[in-house]
Amino acid sequence: MTQARLVLDRDFTVGEVPRRIFGSFVEHMGRCVYTGIYEPGHPAADEHGFRTDVLDLVREMGVSVVRYPGGNFVSGYRWEDGVGPVDQRPRRLDGAWHTVETNAFGLHEFVDWARVAGVEVMEAVNLGTRGVEAARQLVEYANHPGGTALSDLRAANGHPEPFDIRLWCLGNEMDGPWQMGAKTPEEYGRIAQETAKAMRLVDPTIELVACGSSNSGMPTFGTWEQTVLRHAYEYVDYVSLHAYYQEDEGDHASFLASAVDMDHFIESVVATADAVRAAGKHTKRINLSFDEWNVWYQRGKDTPDQPHVIEREGVWREHPRIIEDEYDVTDAVVVGTFLNSLLRHGDRVKVANQAQLVNVIAPIRSEPGGPAWRQSIFWPFARMSALAHGQILRVAATSDRYDAGKFGDTDLVDASATWDEEHGRVALFLAHRGLDAAADVTVDLRGWTGARVTRAEVLTIPEGGDRFTASTQDRPDAVGLVPLDDVQVDGSTATVRLPALSWAVVELEVTKA
After folding, report:
1. How many C-beta atoms lie closer than 10 Å to residue 437's C-beta?
2. Which of 72, 169, 207, 289 is most buried (most C-beta within 10 Å)?
3. Model confidence at 312, in pLDDT bands (50, 70, 90)?
4. b/e 310-344 (16+ beta carbons within 10 angstroms → b)
5. Which DSSP state fits 51?
């Protein structure tokens, strides 16, 4: 039996839960937009063509902010193509994903969809094939009240009131050789600085995200952030991080410990940003936007067989099926640990976007003309978004450990927790990485008395299944949350028994001591 002990103290907190960490991502890639969130003619489509079955799942998932329209797509995108009468919009070749973009869905449609969904818009500008002027004009079009050519054009296109978009990305993965208009750190640092200045001259209230290195394995990682921030520190509010993980050749031990790498990645970028702050004698602090993260089987998966390869040759198609991974129990547990990592670092990670929202490596799947359903990774996100409120608690954890391959000796039990003083609730988010035995987790609650369990749920290997079990169109409820009965409370101590390979949430109603 695996053993773990957690100590939670009411007075030892990290900071307020940043609600923007429960973000997602909609890119013009594959079927995320077309037949994902938008499908005119679908039985569940509303008058705008938005799929209401998908909207219901987005609301249930608790998404707070959605990044749009990319991603690699944005580095070749002309925002003007997606405004105005739909029947007059141009069809374009999208080199990022080798597809034909119809532009039937653009900025107006996305803003309308976001308002119906109840999410904040996070807009990206093209700093690949375009630059300062196009970005400045987009801010004017979106946010200026009226009386100028671009703001009046927005009104003529059906939106007299400004979109009031607060959060903007200055390009995407600009150190990536795959990126249209990829740049050196000096080139990007300068254009990010000048674009930020121009955008803020139009609307000084906006928040700006500078591109960090495309991932922590890039040769440019570290020096890229340092150089970019040396130029743009005073003009931006966040620096971005992107990370994707997968199980390689059956190495489940390393895969289950992927959040160890995420922790290190976050802490490395924080250290770099703070070093630039000190060297430049800046007073403000740059925070982090982890605006792409997920499990992504870029090199295939043992089971099931999925279309992982992105076709870049041959015919140009409209919204083909691209990287529509099916997620299983193991993936859900790993995603739960990623969410724990983001929450634990909520003092500096203020924005995060799981990539992507529908169909493309997504927690939600849909079929053209057919149903929409939740994948296994939907559940940790939905429950944490619903229950993580108030203060992030600093968890002091002691756990039995295991050999996690490339990540070394690692805790079998991973945890995060929050304290919602307004409602008198402590929420525990627990992941058990062990495949062979249950784990007994003792939770020492300091500063509270009279604990009572209000919710206890677990996602684990279903009866008759294995760790590869996934929810599919034919079996949409194959993987989900079930009641966790093995929770005991004795005064200020709670004991939780976690099944092997599981993610769980336990909510306790408590009284301050």
Report:
1. 14
2. 289
3. low
4. eeeeeeeeebbebbbbbbbbbbbbbbbbbbbbbbb
5. B
3-state secondary structure of 190: helix
Long-range contacts of 54-59 (CB under 8 A, 24+ apart): 54/358, 54/364, 54/366, 54/372, 55/113, 55/116, 55/117, 57/364, 57/372, 57/374, 57/378, 58/24, 58/117, 58/119, 58/357, 58/364, 59/117, 59/118
* This prediction's pTM: 0.96
Kindly state the average pLDDT of the residues 75-100.
Answer: 97
| Separation of CA 287 from chain center | 16
Q: What is the pLDDT of residue 467?
A: 96
- Cα separation of 267 and 3, whole Å? 27
- The token duo for 22 is 């429960």
For the annotated catalytic residues, the residue numbers are 173, 292
**Taking Cα atoms as reference points, which of 344, 512, 511, 509 lies closest to residue 427?**
509
Compute the distance between CA of residue 473 and CA of residue 454 in angstroms, rounded to an integer.
32
Q: Are 261 and 225 in contact (CB under 8 A)?
A: no
Contacts of 157 (CB under 8 A, 6+ apart): 83, 84, 108
Which pairing describes strands 238-245 and 65-68: parallel, antiparallel, or unpaired? unpaired
Q: Which residues contact 155 (CB under 8 A, 6 or more apart)?
A: 146
What is the token pair recorded at 311? 């076709």
283 Cβ partners below 8 Å, 6+ apart?
none
**Tokens found for residue 490:** 């004795």
Is residue 211 within 8 Å of residue 170, measured between CB atoms? yes
SS (H, E, C) 261-313: HHHHHHHHHHHHHHHHHHHHCCCCCCEEEEEEEEECCCCCCCCCCCCCCCCCC
b/e per residue 232-245 (b: at least 16 CB within 10 A): bbebbbbbbbbbeb
CB atoms closer than 10 angstroms to residue 468: 15
Mean residue pLDDT of the chain comes to 96
In DSSP terms, 488 is beta-bridged to: 495
Across the range 395-410, mean pLDDT stands at 96
Query: What sign results for the dihedral spanned by CA atoms 170, 173, 179, 184?
Result: positive
Name the nearest CA neighbour of 30 among 80, 101, 127, 103.
101
